[in-house]
Amino acid sequence: MIPRLLTRYLLRDAKYYPVLTVTGPRQSGKTTLARAAFPEHIYVSLEETDVRLFAKEDPRGFLARYPGATVIDEVQRAPDLLSYIQTDVDRDPSPGRFVLTGSQNLMLMEKVSQSLAGRCGVLHLMPFSRVELERQKQEEPGNPEKLFPNRKTRLDCWETIRTGFYPPIHDRGIPPEIWLADYLRTYVERDVRTLVNIGDLETFERFVRLCAGRIGQLVNYSSLASDCGVAVDTARRWISILKTSFIVFLLPPHHRNFNKRVIKSPKLYFYDTGLACLLLGIRDAGQAFSHPLRGALFENYILAEVAKAYLNHRRPPPIFFWRDQTGHEIDLLIEEGSVLYPIEIKSGSTVVPHMLDTLKWWSGLAGKTSRSPVLIYGGTEAYVRQGIAVRPWFSV
Length: 396
Fold this sequence. Notes:
By secondary structure, the chain is of the alpha/beta class. The protein has two domains: 7-124, 3-Layer(aba) Sandwich (Rossmann fold), CATH 3.40.50; 130-395, no CATH class. Helices cover 42% and strands 16% of the residues. The protein has helices at 7-13, 30-37, 49-57, 59-65, 81-91, 105-115, 130-133, 144-147, 157-163, 167-172, 176-195, 201-212, 221-228, 232-244, 273-279, 285-290, 294-311, 357-366, and strands spanning 19-23, 42-45, 70-73, 98-102, 120-124, 248-251, 267-270, 319-323, 329-336, 339-346, 374-377, 383-385, 388-392. The strands form three sheets. A six-stranded mixed beta sheet has the order 8-9-10-11-13-12, with helices on both faces. A five-stranded parallel beta sheet has the order 2-3-4-1-5, sandwiched between helices. Strands 6-7 form a two-stranded antiparallel sheet.
């Protein structure tokens, strides 16, 4: 088993809360993590039909059957059970009594917030990060020196981007084009039906592919709806479904305008570049390297790794982008307190002077608010150039 960075926070929070909830995309390793972290806990899965019916029809009897510390897997399959868990932990608030896992964030978190507010610690487990995959240490992120240190890698950049980070691909050695295709089919045919009543699943799958073609672009619901042949409200709802099931995330624009008119729409990214590559028809590293969306895929990879770095240390990612209406743009802003750390992301393997221009311009515009600019690129060297830290793709 590849160690997960979230483990220490899970064990720490088990000393504070009677209930812990681990959410994340399906097949991200939630069950493996929970069982490895709490080997003495009873384990029960609500994926099993008879167990799920028992939990739904007689929740008190179900909980009485498992009186000790228990891991309850896929708890969103019986969401009303959470109300009875609340009553149980109110009687006995011993820390670490229940560890719940679930792969549908919105459905699960609505019930958690209603029933277990103040009684439950919530952690998000994403697919592997590159740091985890290579068994490297990672400090809690903050300033760029901690987030982008000098590292080594045994991986190839474009093979890593096209493969992605879902654990079964790496644990079992399954070719990504095979496993991810099955994952997508299962997700569309099973999870989407659970989340919302969609009659035409082929149209929804086409919508997901259209989203992959818009990686790194401003979200335009009207354009998505028109290209897919659905209503704008449907496009908004389907984006929400993809967010709920941890397929995509939206990067918000930073609100500070520095006397400029700024763009207010978020940008669209996938949590896993392997899945995005599958949706784009990319089957090997060479195709990823030469694809028209090469730059967007590289940017997506870096942003997803930064987001995972924060989530793996139990922190919401304080990440944004900045763009004004004249075309100036910073790919990534990390906000720590009142300080903004600007980061530019370039897929090229050679740094040329113009790559630094936007960072220098923005640092002058933002003044003392901006610190420690970073350029992340597709090469392998780490150095400082014109006061800007240049870091390779594997630095995060």
